Amino acid sequence: MTKKWALREKISDDLEKQLLFYRGIKTEEEAEKFFNPDYERDLRDPFDFSVMEKITNRIAEAIGKNEKIVVFGDYDADGICACVVFHDFFKKIDFENFEVYIPDRSEGQGLNLKIIDEFIKQKVGLIITVDCGITDHDEIKKAKNGGMDVIITDHHLPSRGLPPDAFAVLDPFIEDKEYPFIQFCGTGLAFKIVCALSKNKAFKIFPGWEKWLLDIVAIATIADMSPLVDENRVFVFYGLEVLKKTRRKGLLALLEKLNIDRFNITEEDVAFYVAPCINVASRMEHAAISYSLLITYFDEEAEALSRKLIERNNERKKKTEEIFEEINRKMEGAENFPEILVLGDEKWPIGIVAPLANKVLEKYGRPAIVWGKGIMSKQIKGSCRSNGRINLVELLTEIGDKIFDDFGGHAMSTAFTLKEGKISELGKEVEAAFEKISHYEVESPCIWLEIGLGLDNIDWNFISFLGKFRPFGMGNPKPVFLFSNLEVSGVRTFGNGGIHLQLNFKKSNGEIISAIGFFMQKKLEFSVEHGTKIDLAASVEENRFNGRREIRLRIVDMRKAE
């Protein structure tokens, strides 16, 4: 369980300066923007994207001519939320000739030829993809030949260049090298387009209306693990404020059932509770459930859909754990693991291969490819996760259409659909491609500790100080501190089967401080009991439960004190 611990070099006696320095913030101007994000100042003009004027002119033309518009989204939380952003805009301007289409996971990611045929029959004039489409060359060509323009908005890497038949492509990773920030999620890009459209006086939108969309933008940005820096930090900072005031009946019902106090909602509430419920719809049923939840105007529908999503998420967690235990049993007898792990079974539902790949990567520290089929899919589909040693887009591109029907994603995370009858070839093709592509050095997992603290340093003033650095997430990790030679005054386990660990410690004034280690009980490598002395790598947080506020530690790792 124990990883390498490293105490950061001390660069200042001022903890604020120390934390800022290791987040790349070194000037007063940068610190001001970090601590006090400003919506008007810190969000760039969407027309700074060189293609934005072309995109908005075409959408405005379609609206003016009452052409049918299809918003085609990916089925994850990011794609769903991007569809909601466009839905809300069209409803705001009273444009009704649009359809949102989110494919079933079994249809595969992105456009497909069958649905293009259907859009041609419906006489669609414009397709706008969100969070997908960058690799769909054949489908876009067919759409163009069928009289439709296709605007691609995506933030994934292309496997074979830009689609030449697209009307326009907005993909900040490749399309526009001059825009200063590229780390948007798909919903972030949709929001930028709507911001640009809102400036069109013909739509008569009151300035600032688009801020009400930030609850959805924040959820997607957190769910997609986009780095919370630059414009993304502004999205989430203000999005959490909008969430406190949200008028979306579906979100209100979901937050209530998750026992989340929306007036004190945090980025962690979104990451660990809200986003998984939005994501689970496509994994266990259909993404349309989550989309409907986010746009519904009806209390009864909000109640039913939120209840269903929570039930499905509980089912997903249970099934994932069962299969992960199965994987661990198979791995137990292996003396040497391959450099890249390929695991799967036709009985495994395709909806849980992504979380399984994450868990395999986390436990075994190697690139992981996990595939499944289940009863809901006609094809085998897989998810891939990298530890940084390889670029997964490069890996899958090297294999190409020899065995894949389609594939795409990011350097660290990809997905694929396997051609029929090719499962026996997957392992050897991955192995061969792995040998051909570039390999990168990966440092051993390391926990960076900001400074050493004592329990007496932890009080409500310290909680307020840390609060200035929120929201935490990718690109702005929650600070982790070293607590040395702590004597355990109490131990308990909790959760399903006692999987979580709580340790109690006493401050010098007798006050009890608890430390929580989620999913840590099974990982303990030594016995912990009353009187045991340990070192902790832990973050410090405020916990709110049943109207109570308390300060506690969140355990990242622990070891016996020397």
Automatic annotation (TrEMBL):
One of its GO terms (molecular function) is 5'-3' exonuclease activity. Residues 68-221 form the DDH domain. GO terms for biological process: DNA recombination; DNA repair. Belongs to the RecJ family. Residues 453-557 form the RecJ OB domain. It comes from the Bacteria. Gene3D superfamilies: 2.40.50.460, 3.90.1640.30. SUPFAM superfamilies: DHH phosphoesterases. Residues 302-330 form a coiled coil. Residues 341-435 form the DHHA1 domain. Keywords: Coiled coil, Exonuclease, Hydrolase, Nuclease. This is Single-stranded-DNA-specific exonuclease RecJ. Pfam families: DHH, DHHA1, RecJ_OB. It comes from Candidatus Tagabacteria bacterium CG03_land_8_20_14_0_80_41_22. Signal peptide: none annotated.
